[in-house]
Amino acid sequence: MIRYIDDMQLTGKRVFIRVDFNVPLEGKRITDDTRIREALPTIRRALDMGGKVILASHLGRPKGPDPKLSLEPAASRLTELLGAKHEVILADDCVGDGVRKLVKDLKDGQVLMLENLRFHKEEEANDETFARELASFADVYINDAFGTAHRAHASTAGMVPYVKEKGAGLLMRKELEYLGGVMKNPAKPFVAILGGAKVSDKIKVIESLLPKVDALLIGGAMAYTFLKAQGIEVGKSRVEEDKLSLATRMLEAAQRLKTALVLPIDHVCSTEPTDKGEVREVPDRAIPADLMGLDIGPKTRAMFSEHIRNAKTVVWNGPMGMFEVEKYAAGTRTVAESMAINKDAITVVGGGDSAAAVNEMGLGVKLSHVSTGGGASLEFLEGRELPGVKALETKQ
Ligand SMILES: Nc1ncnc2c1ncn2[C@@H]1O[C@H](COP(=O)(O)OP(=O)(O)O)[C@@H](O)[C@H]1O
Ligand SMILES: O=C(OP(=O)(O)O)[C@H](O)COP(=O)(O)O
Ligand SMILES: [Mg+2]
Questions:
Q1: Which EC number(s) does the record attach to this protein (predicted)?
Q2: 225 φ/ψ sector (left φ>0, alpha ψ -120 to 50, else beta)
Q3: Half-sphere exposure of residue 163: CA atoms within 13 angstroms, side-chain side
Q4: N or C of the chain: less Cβ packing under 10 Å?
Q5: E-state strands within the chain
Q6: What CATH code is assigned to 5-172?
Q7: Alpha-carbon Rg of the chain, whole angstroms?
Q8: 227 by DSSP, 3-state: which?
């Protein structure tokens, strides 16, 4: 059983809320604040119930303290969203004596935001001493970081047993209820679309998705590992060399199951992954040696669109290209638009970056559900138990 924040007594208690404020940034500018806005109901609820709120999140994948990945922009945005009634204080670390003092001095109605958890390698290592220190700041632990629930880290799993009371936030509940419902009996044809950059993380979910879906469309950086595994030249495109044999196994499994595993047949390329490079359309599956694939090409867009328009359930994670640069956004836009116009289908998109893309295109409101989790929603949809959710289970 999982308790939820609205059933808990929080008055005067220190409420530690693990949020996922891993928002897309351009320098210090947040390009999409969906994850912050989606956590607001839980934060407001904790404040309204008289709790002293401590927020903790990671941002990016730093290898130690890195000012470019400070949570300062997120703290500023939260200050604006919460309004004048509440003060948001940003600590300069997430553990240590300074933080302990800030926690001790925290007043009702104030929010203390800890600095990026991943500035300490102990967070991802799920180090016990680090986990116990985080736990020592809290009377109540709430997890509202659905987007990070697939990670067994100190702040999502390790610290939980050391806090007196534990529960889930309102965003976590919304995500689990919605995504749980989608998978109960998905209407067919069921089409899944995978892309993005976190190839090694996400490639492993394909095995369990294949038997469930009618077609799996692969774009984004994920596609080139699959093309290369088929012996097709991919030039300078991003490839996860150590996943080539896994990709081959997936291609064989798809054949065995008679599930369509659809890969790009043309590409939009350049010599470099920035907005500076010249755009070169490549009309074939193979990519010349000096180029890298940065978006799916027009023939692939038409093919993917056709699959999506005929589907009754569509689940999508991962942009089709480097959509942050407009000249590589067409593939991602086509997928988003094809989902938006299919009114007969349940359409779900997940992921920090995918959600940013659909919201920037103004299409998020036209989909059935925009999830804050990419990797997390994929692992949940495949039926895997999420460590961040498991940690919240109580006996009765
Ligand atoms: N072909 C590509 N080459 C390089 N980067 C890509 C490519 N396709 C997609 N990306 C990048 O993938 C990133 C998002 O990946 P990911 O984090 O896995 O997705 P999500 O956050 O939606 O789960 C984006 O920043 C995008 O620029
Ligand atoms: O952005 C996230 O996932 P996503 O890119 O799959 O949406 C989460 O914050 C998890 O981050 P991580 O993949 O660095 O552990
Ligand atoms: Mg992402």
A1: 2.7.2.3
A2: alpha
A3: 31
A4: C
A5: 14-18, 25-26, 29-30, 52-56, 88-90, 111-113, 140-143, 165-168, 190-194, 215-218, 260-262, 267-270, 280-282, 292-296, 313-317, 346-350, 369-371
A6: 3.40.50.1260
A7: 22
A8: helix
Q: Does domain 185-380 have CATH number 3.30.428.10?
A: no
From 21, 22, 349, the mutation candidate for ligand 2 (largest count of ligand atoms within 8 A of CB) is 22
- Has 375 been annotated as catalytic? yes
State pLDDT tens for residues 165-188: 999 999 999 999 999 998 888 999
pLDDT value, residue 182: 87
Which of 18, 148, 155 for mutating ligand 2's site (highest number of atoms within 8 Å of CB)?
148
Rounded Cα distance between 191 and 212, Å, is: 9
Q: How many beta carbons lie within 10 A of that of residue 325, not counting itself?
A: 17
Residues whose CB is less than 8 angstroms from the CB of residue 97 and which lie 6 or more positions away in sequence, other chains included:
none
Task: List, in order, residues 6 or more apart from 211 with CB less than 8 Å away.
Answer: 257, 259
- Do domains 5-172 and 185-380 share one topology? The answer is yes
* Helical segments of 110-267, H only: 121-125, 128-136, 170-184, 199-202, 206-209, 222-229, 244-257
Q: Could you confirm whether 195 is annotated as catalytic?
A: no
pLDDT of 396 above 80: no
Helix ranges, 57-127 (H): 72-82, 97-105, 121-125
What dihedral angle (degrees, nearest 10) is formed by the CA atoms of 260, 266, 272, 278? -150
